[in-house]
């Protein structure tokens, strides 16, 4: 058998090492900014997603609230793995807290757009993170960098939602514990709840505060009287109608949410309690009175949320359709 020259052996070894560096970057690396750079030729994956989100936002500014809630509900259950997108009779999507979640079609559109450029490369989990960032940018005016490289999960069960997702009427203390289980601090929680500045809620979650707070037969004494009367008009006591109430009157994301809390105008119980709890009231005060850095701090909290229990490397899969697990 003919022996290879020393130079040929070195050259072959170098090619093997370099190719394995590239493969390792693809399969084994942690999340990183610009993960898809160069993986779809000269195409900019994040710019493609931004185009989809911008077109939707122009038609419907509530897109930002929808995508924020979508990312939150996805990341808090199995981690940020797009398990909330799976359609099925026994998937996360069927859990009661997720029945009113929106934004699924935006992710479908983003997936179709990136797959036209490079099929089977971009995960649905990353699309949720990128699309949410772009919607926040359009509302908040500040663009934060997101890490990518997530893989899509292989499990989506409705019972996991009630196990991990904080319920809408949870106390601040209970929520702090649930956030801590995901590696998030009380300050992170206060920042992330700033998303309520663009959210909505149904009257059914407010009526106790308006009419029978903690079974006293009276309204919540911490609520501003003017707001109380306004909400009672929107949410009459003895009616089956379940109207929608804006969590903030400002259509754009800013620190006005925290300013309203100091005026006793928080809508959900947890909103108002943030301004009263010893572990959160200091952060609320700072964000309300010195909120110039709220955009950057909110972005940092969203990045931290987006890193919860992610799948990377060879874990999970890259779904062909965000709505279904791949057939193996």
- Give the structural class: mainly alpha
Q: Which geometry do the CA atoms define?
A: globular
Helix/strand order: HEEHHHHEHHHEHHEHHHH
Sheet bearing the most strands, described?
2 strands, antiparallel
Question: Would you report the number of β strands?
Answer: 5
Helix content: 40-55%
Radius of gyration: 23 Å
Topology:
Elements: H1 6-27, E1 32-33, E2 39-42, H2 45-59, H3 63-78, H4 104-117, H5 124-140, E3 147-148, H6 159-164, H7 172-181, H8 186-192, E4 200-202, H9 207-211, H10 225-234, E5 244-246, H11 256-262, H12 269-274, H13 281-289, H14 294-305
Antiparallel strand pairs: 1-3, 4-5
Helix pairs in contact: 2-4, 2-5, 3-5, 4-5, 8-14, 11-13
Question: Can you walk me through this structure?
Answer:
By secondary structure, the chain is mainly alpha-helical. The chain has 14 helices and five strands. A two-stranded antiparallel ribbon has the order 1-3. The protein has a two-stranded antiparallel ribbon with strand order 4-5. α2 (45-59) runs antiparallel to α4, α2 packs across α5 (124-140) and α3 (63-78) crosses α5. It starts with 5 loop residues before the first helix and ends in a 23-residue tail after the last helix. The model is unreliable at 1-28 (pLDDT under 50).
